[in-house]
């Protein structure tokens, strides 16, 4: 790829700076008070809730250690991801997503109308995942998305979902661990807002729309012009990200709006709150912008899990937090409609901006 391809070129003000600010500031939170049950004592959980609350308020991002996800499982999915992407384009395109079921392999995603320097493989947590057919709020028809299951690498994902004799494969096992961790984090976040621990659980119990994404960022000959993922906020409730040892993730620091590089911490997960938590908390916790910078020598892999509620969830500030002094800052919206609207615009370069939670802001 000698020639600079125009679709990848970021606007001058979006291009990465050559000087990097390393994040010492992103909090690292030790989850052992809740993962190590023999240690479960109320005062250590209380401390943890406080830490989570200030991380959400000050950064919108934090890392977790002692999170309970088995390291061997993480290594297995990372290896499977490398093997999958190492195949020929022709082979990978056999599992290419389409406009009907946007799961599987894809290499031409756009963020804010500029092409991302990456290839991805998406896999829904629930198969099938029920979703509105169109983003039109008067249209009640549903459709469903199903997964594509590559034959290679072996044990990566399993085509026969209900075969009791077959142990679940890597991706399903990993998704189950991600869900478990999300439910724990959601409890801590609810407690930190002064709500009941299980306040948000119902939205995910039936028909959640979560998915996992394998990201591969190949080396890029013009890292000063392109981005692996352009600046964006995650639209869901939470994101759990596994990044490898090659850095690249940058987070916009709330204090001064500078882009801060998140230094990889071995075996930790990076957590960020998404737009839904911002709306639930009525802006107490803001969903923070982030992006991925690529480099000319090293390829990078990452695996985000996007924790998304059921399509029929009505997203609105929780009523316990609303009163005369703190009136609701958002009009309610249907998650499924929002998601479908977003998917349609990510698919191809479009002239209009993506739908945002700010479209539901009460002025
Ligand atoms: C994303 C994202 C970060 C990364 O896919 O939404 O922010 O490091 N990814 O890959
Ligand atoms: Ni993101």
From TrEMBL:
Record-linked SUPFAM superfamilies: Clavaminate synthase-like (SSF51197)
Organism: Cajanus cajan (Pigeon pea)
Upper classification of the organism: Eukaryota, Viridiplantae, Streptophyta, Embryophyta, Tracheophyta
This protein's UniProt keywords: Iron, Metal-binding, Oxidoreductase, Vitamin C
Name by which UniProt lists this protein: Gibberellin 20 oxidase 1
Gene3D superfamilies, per the entry: B-lactam Antibiotic, Isopenicillin N Synthase, Chain
Span of domain Fe2OG dioxygenase: 208-309
Pfam families attached to this UniProt entry: 2OG-FeII_Oxy, DIOX_N
Entries under PANTHER family matching the protein: OXOGLUTARATE/IRON-DEPENDENT DIOXYGENASE
Family per record: Belongs to the iron/ascorbate-dependent oxidoreductase family.
Molecular function as annotated in GO: L-ascorbic acid binding; metal ion binding; oxidoreductase activity
Chain ranges passing through the membrane: none
């Amino acid at each position: 790829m000698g020639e600079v391809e125009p679709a990848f070129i970021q606007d001058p003000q979006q291009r990465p700076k050559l000087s990097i600010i390393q994040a010492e500031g992103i909090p690292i939170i030790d989850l052992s008070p809740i993962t190590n049950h023999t240690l479960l004592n109320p005062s250590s959980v209380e401390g943890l809730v406080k830490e989570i609350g200030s991380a959400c308020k000050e950064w919108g991002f934090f890392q977790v250690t002692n999170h309970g996800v088995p390291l061997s499982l993480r290594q297995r999915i990372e290896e499977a991801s490398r093997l999958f992407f190492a195949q020929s384009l022709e082979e990978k395109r056999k599992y290419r997503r389409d406009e009907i079921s946007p799961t599987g392999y894809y290499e031409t995603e756009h963020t804010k109308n500029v092409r991302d320097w990456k290839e991805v493989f998406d896999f829904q947590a629930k198969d099938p995942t029920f979703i509105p057919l169109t983003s039109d709020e008067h249209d009640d028809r549903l459709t469903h998305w199903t997964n594509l299951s590559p034959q290679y690498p072996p044990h990566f994902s399993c085509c026969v979902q209900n075969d009791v004799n077959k142990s679940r494969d890597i991706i399903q096992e990993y998704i189950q661990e991600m869900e478990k961790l999300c439910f724990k984090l959601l409890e801590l976040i609810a407690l930190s807002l002064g709500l009941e621990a299980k306040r948000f659980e119902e939205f995910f119990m039936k028909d959640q729309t979560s998915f996992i994404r394998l990201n591969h960022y190949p080396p890029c000959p013009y890292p000063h012009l392109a981005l692996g993922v352009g600046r964006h906020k995650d639209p869901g409730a939470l994101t759990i990200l596994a990044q490898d040892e090659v850095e690249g993730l940058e987070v916009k620091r709330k204090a001064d709006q500078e882009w801060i590089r998140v230094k990889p911490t071995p075996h930790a997960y990076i957590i960020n709150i998404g737009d839904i938590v911002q709306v639930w908390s009525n802006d107490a916790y803001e969903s923070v912008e982030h992006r991925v910078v690529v480099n000319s020598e090293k390829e990078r892999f990452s695996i985000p899990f996007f924790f998304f509620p059921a399509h029929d969830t009505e997203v609105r500030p929780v009523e316990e937090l609303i009163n005369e002094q703190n009136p609701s800052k958002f009009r309610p919206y249907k998650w499924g409609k929002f998601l479908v609207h977003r998917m349609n615009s990510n698919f191809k370069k479009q002239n209009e901006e993506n739908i945002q939670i700010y479209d539901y802001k009460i002025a």
